[in-house]
User: Fold this.
Amino acid sequence: MREAAYRDGTVPAKYKVLAALAISVAIRCEPCIRAYVKVAYDKGITQEELIEFLEVAMTMQGCPGEEWALKAYAVYKGCACGEEPRDVAACCAHRTE
Assistant:
């Protein structure tokens, strides 16, 4: 189901992943944030695209959203420096066990 959901279609895959990331920020799921930032980075998102989606997440979450958006931004910066996010496999692990 995930492969189908995040494929290129009418909406490019990277924007679907960025939407999932914004939702992850809004629901405060740190493993999901790390995983979706990594996937989005691998799909070639720009820093500017990331920031715009994080701004949306922050408007939906209020002040706490800023803290979680900053976590996502830090993961992105790490990816840009060649670091692998930790615990990416923990994202939705309950669905794959």
Notes: The chain has one domain: 2-95. The CA atoms of residues 23 and 57 lie 7 Å apart. The mean pLDDT is 87. Residues 2-95 form a domain with the AhpD-like fold (CATH 1.20.1290.10).
